[in-house]
Amino acid sequence: MRLADARAVCPALLTVPDAPDNDAAFLEALARWASRYSPSLNVDGADGLWLDTTGVAHLFGGEPELLANLAGRLARMSFSARLGCADTLGGASALARFARRSPVIAASGTAPETLAPLPIEALRLDPETVLLLQRLGLKRIGQLYGLPRASLERRFHSKDAAESVLRRLDEALGRRNETHAPLLPAPDFVARLSFADPLISHDGVLAGLERLAGALCSTLTRAGAGARRVVLWAARTDGSSVALEAGLSAPSATAAHFVRLLKEKLDTIDMGFGVDLMTFAALAVEDLHPEQTALSATARKPGPEKLIDALVSRLGPRTVRRLFPQESHIPELAQTTQNAFSKLPAWNGSSSSTYLEKPPRPPLLLAKPESVAVMAEIPEGPPARFTWRRVNRRVVKAEGPERIAPEWWRAFDGGATQRTRDYYRIEDEDGCRYWVFREGLYQERGEQEREPPRWFLHGVLP
Amino acid sequence: MTFSSTPASEPRYAELDVTTNFTFLRGGSHGEELVAQAAALGHAAIAVADANTLAGVVRAHIAAKEAGIQFIVGARLILADAPSLLAYPTSRAAYGRLCRLLTRGQRRAEKGDCFLFLDDVAEHADGLIFIALRGENNPGEDRPDDARFEEELLRLKGALRGPLYLAAHHSYRGADRIRIEKSARVAARTHIPLIATGAVLYHAPKRRPLQDVLTCIREKCTLADAGFHLEANAERHLKEPAEMARLFKGYEEALERTVEIAERCRFSLDELKYEYPDEPVPQGKTPQGHLEALTWDGAAWRFPDGIPGKVRSTIEKELALIEELSYAPYFLTVYDIVHYARSVGILCQGRGSAANSAVCYCLAITNVDPTEIDLLFERFVSPERREPPDIDVDFEHERREEVIQYIYARYGRDRAGLATTVISYRGRSAVREVGKVLGLSEDTVAALAGTIWGLSNTGLPDKYVREAGLDPSDPRLARCLALAHELLGFPRHLSQHVGGFVLTRGPLSELVPIGNAAMEDRTVIEWDKDDLDALGLLKVDVLGLGMLTCIRKAFALLKEHYGRDLALGTVPREDPIVYDMLCRADSIGVFQVESRAQMNMLPRLKPRCFYDLVIEVAIVRPGPIQGDMVHPYLRRRSGDEAVDFPSPHPDHGPPDELHQVLGKTMGVPLFQEQAMRLAMEAAKFSGDEANELRRAMATFRRRGTIGTLQDKMVGRMTARGYPQDFAERCFNQIKGFGEYGFPESHAASFAHLVYVSSWLKCHYPDVFACALLNAQPMGFYAPAQIVRCAREHGVEARAPDINHSHWDCTLEKLPSSPQGARGAVGQLRCALRLGLRQIDGFREADAEQAVARRDRPYAGIQDLWRRSGLGRASIERLASADAFRSLGLDRRQALWAVRGLPKEIPLPLFEHAMTTEIGREPDVALPVMPLPEHVVDDYRTLRLSLKAHPMTFLRAHVTAARIVSCGQVKTMTDGMRVSVGGVILVRQRPGSASGVVFMTIEDETGVANAVIWPTVLERMRKVVMGARLVVIHGRVQRHEDIIHVVAARLEDKNHWLDRLSEDGEALEAALANADEVRRPDPGSWRGSQPKPGLLPPLAAADHVKRPESGEPARKGEARHPRWHPRCHPRETRIIPKSRDFH
Asked: What is the value of pTM for the model shown?
């Protein structure tokens, strides 16, 4: 059903976007939880789990008890689950998903009879293959048993499809072994180092860190990855441990860089009765591919990444921010500060010319425009005289106005409604240059422009 | 600059650099607004210069005439190899050159684009005044540096050799004085005079937000990240001359020059004169002489027994009038096209104001006998009204393209072009675009857009916003709706008109630029029909009509199988059996009167003669319905109410002043022209006022200026002593016509097709059904209903079969019927064999090939595969459609066999070996397919089943639940309680029925109609919208022969379908018919809701929603060669966008 149709039926329908990634992550977490029943298990499709209970069931008092236990726990967690148990993975999957009741257990060796009435979809086939079988009237697994295999095979245009039917059938019936990979822990980027004698000096820890960082970096490099966050665990002989974390603004696989980041913090480690195990791990990993280094040393400009990392590791991640350009005609909005770890937005080539075309902006913009008293020609004349910080200045040269209207759409976000500004570049008798603006126009426009215009000084020009 | 002119006390200025919204997504105001504003500000003149187009100039020209300001036609030429130029023609000849230039640029580009080079401009430069632009009007444009720009200017000057100016404008970007001074110096060095412009994008500063939104739509971004694509301020508006003088202080001569240019550009669009093409008139003859000769020849052919005296005098009168108005070339042009169509056997019929004349009858343009219907020609073409004659010609929709290409071939691409249709932002598209730009979430935008079921000029009432679950007081939402409202009516792109051709004697490209259409082999002029009307240019409408295709096919079948050779004009007239059939509302498939509302009307109106059909066609229309004229007419017709004529107070006029106008329709205005005549007779509208009313009607949707006219008309009628109520109803009717006008002359032409198709259906239901199926997609009903109806009339329907079917449906001789028996009701000679075209996804080329190689019947699937050369996939489609019954295979066995075919056809040498190998394959007993499942699969592949109706299998179950069949409902009396079940055929929620849903359900015994009132709908919404199979509990409402079930409660019984097979869901999908409620179409929601009629079904003005039957011309659009003929009928039911009538 299309969303539009669903809305026509039920106008008040609430919709939540599908998030298959989240679902998959959650299912995997559930799989890890289920490892209490069996060490060999994995997720099955987008909505199932399989557990190999060989040699496990007796711990729970038998297969029915195991299933009851599992069903009970899942129910307490508010899951509605369907359980099936059979000799083969294929059989169990078919029973769990398509048997009329749940939990259901196919006694050993009874797979053909148990599976026969189940629909053909239970064989875990792709939809096209299922459709073809259905159209041929082969709607139940049992109807496949008596068919000549060669005849059936001919009916599929693709060899894979033909094979998959027979293979899946054989797997379900236990005529063929099915290979299934259990859920393995994700490949970790971890390096460990244990010491026969506990370390008691910070120097020893530093030496250990250097070795560990080297080991981790070679693992990372082999995997074409770089770490964005690393952690050093130091386990003390008394069983307690301490962790040091560091974040990086760009993925890195350089041992020296990690060491430099952590080195300063090493002193803070309380060694207790000595450290006998050190683990150095990359917690967040991103792709990092080797780059061609420049032939001449000067050609390579070091980015700010190293500086940022150093500052962050010293000052903390939230305190370091950097400026980014932001396309806005309003001068104070033309740049924004963001967390230093933010990625630089892709440079928009077309607008670079627009930046250049604007009349020069003062290098120093006052944080808050300062009110000035001005004598100027109405309606749009530049200031002739103005008073700023109690000093009266006579204007000898002026240019403008540059008219900047407020960004009307910002009012939705609760921003105060602004007025149109006319900016002037002016120079006084002493050769000092200022950037002033008049807020509001004399030609009344719109409702906000009720008050008489006011003058402000916004910056000082060189 | 050393010279100085003395500035006049009052500065004079003419704005020459104006971009309207016809520079799509750049201009922020309508041309009309700009012109009116310029007049208000006191400009000496205003020019409109849109990018490479003249599409917007006519509207601006008309507005300028109203505002009393000089208007200058212009264009902004965007050149690929030089700075952009503004160009203004100084004379008619120069205007022609400008058109030719734009034509050249557009013809060499794709639709909507235009490539021009400086050389092109140089070639057409004579008489044009140019202004060079420095590409600084829009952010992001390339801005050449000073030195390069100077070079470019000199190059321009050298190439153009004519008057050239350099534009300077004050942009409020800071260093304006410097920039203007720089330009002035460049101007001085190059000796190109400087001219002041405003670089106008909108008429007033308040339009800046909308212009920002347009920019974002153009750049496909939201406001938040549009950045420097947006203007920094709101200064791109029209400014007062005094303000311009202040900004250009010191450059007064630059200002003065604008007025100089304006004075030299004295060309006005009023100078365009239309001239008919010469082709239709043979050399040495005058058009009038030729027309007269043709007419009298035609009269002799029409009346072989001698021309009746009345006809003779009518013809003479008409010819005299045509001569007086010199319309002869127009009639000859139409005749020429019709003559061509007839010569190649394309069926056609004219309609329109001038079409139902005796002259047109004699010229075979129309087949409505002037002796049968008394239409006064002078009423349509009158010397006082100076209105051009209007003839639309409908052609078979499948062959209209031939006619179009004939016109292009005969008159040439430079003298014939299709009119354009301006596609504008409508409610939904406007809300969607603005919402996106304002950064509303997709969900919100979808909910908002979904709420607006169609077009409205009144904005979106808060109620509907709340209904969508949104808060109308949210500032962002409120702004979105306000901006969307402002955006309504902005042109979005130009599309081709459905068939309006403009033909000229001289090159058309000197009248108006011609561009390419999206379709191959079509060229389109830039103006739409309103523009053409405004300038008095004539167009001929060449439209496509599905029913003509059907009738032509029926005539061919009739000749082949029954030996009767008939034509549109020779079908026996006034056959009482035909009218009997129509009075029974037995009209499935019949042109125009097959819709549910029409079928409800037929038994009430009881048509007994041709003119009754004319009324029948016209009465179920929004005009009469909104004007509440239907019931009075019916009451008078049945004698329940006396026929009287509303009359003015005796002081104001004779009491019978309306007899002339309303005589034929029993004192009730039903036709569009009657409403107009009412305005003139009863409200004493002058000719000009009537014209204004007509224009307001035509553009009602676009502007909504009709309100003032309402007060005028109603006020005057009541002042003259007419009842207030009658006056208001008359005006409501005019408003209704405004949207979907239906004049008597159109109704008469359509009524003729109603009669012909009814006659065919009545006498030869087999032939009619076959032709109708072969003309699909068209009309109101799906093939399933057509076949069902044919079977109810005793036609034997046979399933598609590989050994019997062709691509088209065919007729097969019934063995029992004696040779030479007269085909008539009850004496059928043929069975209907469904064609392979009914099979979903089967290709026509495959069918042709299989049939061509079928010299002897195919003996088996392998035989078919080898001899026909069909691919395995195609054979599989045949198998799934159960087309191998003649080979003794059902679909399942056939599929098994097809699937067993080897990948490639074996070489002849090994053929024998292979067959034996296949032959050796063990026999496999597949499970037998149960009948219900066959039915399901039939529906899936053919969308109908001849085997059984799905409800048959449920009947026992249903009867046990005390649910009656649709057939039983017909026997019930008024007021009885009933529960009836069936498969839903159609759901409709007509806009003119205040939320009532009409539902038609079907079972094996027939169909039943249900009415669901809004209160019930509210409770039962899920069932009403979601069910496929439904049980309706309610009461029978019976009015004469019209029976409805008024639903009190509905039950969703979709799960019953599961009983039919394991694939119940598939059946559900297969049964999903054209469903209007679930597919909201534009037009279902309208601002003004009329009062519900006494009998709800009358209000079901479903032709509004089903223009295939009401307005089949639109269907022709889909019938382009590139149109995919196998698309599912459901898809083709999408309501065409344009609904304007001609």
From this structure: 0.73
